[in-house]
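Q:
Got a chain?
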Amino acid sequence: VDRAFLRSARGALKIARTLVALITLLCFVASGARGAYTALAAMETVITVLFLLLYLLSLDARMRCLFWPLADILNSVIAALFLLVVCLFAVIVKSNKGTLAGGVFGLILLVLCIVDVVLLSKKISLDKARGRSAPAK
C-alpha cells in the first residue's frame, strides 16, 4: 500500500472524486431518477475506485502494458463531458429534489474531473523514458 499516494494531492483528489461520485449515485438512486443518471454515476464511482486502487496498490508500476496516467486523463475527460450533459439536464429538468441534488453533486464531480486532468497533465512527460522498452541513454 502506497501511503504517500494517500497524502498527495492526487490521492486526496481521487478520494474526493470517489466520495462525490458515491453521493451523486445515492442521490439519483434515492430519487428514482432515470437510468442514464444512475448508470453514469455508478460507472464513474466504479472506475474512480479502480483507478484509486491501481495507484494505491502501485499496480501501475507493475503493469506497464498501458500508460496509466494517460488512461486516467482520457477517463477524466470523457467523464467530464458525460457529466456536463447529464447533470445539466438533471438540474434543468429537476423532476424532484433528489434529482436536483444529484445534478448539483454531479457538476461538482465535473469540476473535480477537470482538476484531475490538470494535475495529471502536469505529471505526464511524454518524452520521459519508462520501463525496459525505453532506449538506453
Remarks:
- The chain has six helices and no strands.
- The mean pLDDT is 89.
- Residues 97-136 form one domain.
- The first helix runs from residue 3 to 7.
